[in-house]
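Sequence in, structure out. Go.
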Amino acid sequence: YTAKREASMALKEILIQKTLPGADVLHEMFYYDGEKLWWKRRPASHFASARAEKIFNTSHAGNEAGRVDKNGRRAVKVFAKYQYVHRVIWAMNRGDVPKIIDHVDGNPLNNSLDNLRPATHSQNMANSKPRKRMAGQLGVPRGVFKMKSGRYKAVLCNLGKITHLGCFATAEEAAYVRNKAAVNTHAAFARVL
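Output:
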């Protein structure tokens, strides 16, 4: 299942990369102020007719580009294909776009260039925000699970494999061990809480 999912994600990333135009075209379309992407007045060569150019430039020029999607990331339509804004920003400023771009602070709406870095899928997942916990696990740190016995189990996921780090009397002890292992395994991509 995991291999199939990763293959699907890789194909999606390849399709995204193939549809992203070069930096010169992106600079004709957008202005990047260091934090946000803004529409420029686009040239006639980007449109099929003078009417389409006038309609677009009247309604979009000077406005922030894109909208926030259901995953909390800002996406913008570039020549009829949606692209994530952080990928457009990367292409405009750094050239070749890596398969995965990680947000250092974990905030997908913080698209400042110093908050973006290339990553592997595993690194990106290591830096992801924790998912919603089950009712019995609320208030328990990431990578720590309360067992029926009342003790706390610490685990770490790396490259799709879960490593059991031990059982502890308190959630704090388990979190300490899990966080230390995360830093050793994921280095700068470790998200510790």
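Check: The longest strand covers residues 161-168. The radius of gyration is 21 Å.
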